[in-house]
Amino acid sequence: MADAKVRRVDPRWLYVGTHLTETASNDNYQAMKRNHSTAIFMFLALLAGAACQQQVARTVKSLKPPVQQTETIPLSAKSPPQLKLTIDGAIDQIGKTTSYDPSYQKIEYPNGDVPIETGVCSDVIVRAFRKAGIDLQKDVHDDMKENFSAYPTRWGLKGTDANIDHRRVPNLQTYFTRKGKSLPTDGGSESFQPGDIVTWDLQLGGTEHVGMVVNVWNKPTQRYLIVHNIGGGTLMEDVLFAWKITGHYRYF
User: Domains of the chain, with CATH numbers?
Assistant: First the structure.
C-alpha cells in the first residue's frame, strides 16, 4: 500500500554529515561518520523490505505457474460487462508496471495516477476498476468526506487527501465494506471467484496487501491466480493463501 510503514529505524541513521558534526562529540564523530554509509544502506534495505512491496514477506516461493499448467476460464454469460473489463484491466498491467514505489505522490483529481511503470498494490485495483469506468479515487474520497469518522485514523489525519486516501488498503477495505461488498474470508479456494478483491495481513507490523482474483486457473492447485504488486511490479501468481486473508470483496 502507499505511504506504507517500515520497521522502526533509528533516525540517527539518516543524519547527514553536517548534522553529525553538530550533535556528536569529537570523540565519537569519526566513528559515527564511518558508520554513516553502512547505516544508510541498512535503512534502504529495510525500506525495500517494507509493506506490500517485499519479496521477503512471502511465506511461499513465487508463484507464477508455468503457462502449460494454467487455463483461462471464460466468465459466465450472465456476468456484467464491467467484470470482464476490470479483470482484463488488472491483467493488462502485467509487463507495464514493473516496479514499486510507496512514496507519497501528488496526483490529479479525479482519475489521477502515478506513472504506469510503478505504483503500489492498491494501484492495481484502482487501475483495473477504471477500465470499467469506476474511479475509486473519487468514490473513496467522496465517501470519506461524508463519513470521515468511519475510516481508519492510524495516519493521524484530520481530513481527506485525494492524493493518497484511495491508495491505502485499509481505506479500500472500509469503502468496500460500507458499500456492502464484503464476503467471508474463511472459505476454501472455491469461494474466491474472478474479479474478487482480496486483502492480506503480511504479518509485518500491521502491513496490508491487496490483489485481485482473475480468471486464470492453476490446474495443479485447483484455484484461480491473483494479480498483484508486492515489489516486483504487477504479476499474476498463485498466492491466494500465501498470507493471512483479512478481507474478501465482490464488487460486481
Answer: 11-48 (no CATH), 52-249 (3.90.1720.10)
Residue 226 CB partners (closer than 8 Å, separation 6+): 198, 211, 212, 213, 214, 236, 237, 238, 239, 240
Residue type, 86: T
186-241 per-position pLDDT tens digit: 999 999 999 999 999 999 888 999 999 999 999 999 999 999 999 999 999 999 99
**pLDDT tens-digit series, residues 165-192:** 999 999 999 999 999 999 999 999 999 9
Task: List, in order, residues 6 or more apart from 176 with CB less than 8 Å away.
Answer: 182, 197, 247, 249, 251
How far apart are the C-alpha atoms of 42 and 13, rounded to whole Å?
9
Mean pLDDT of the chain: 83
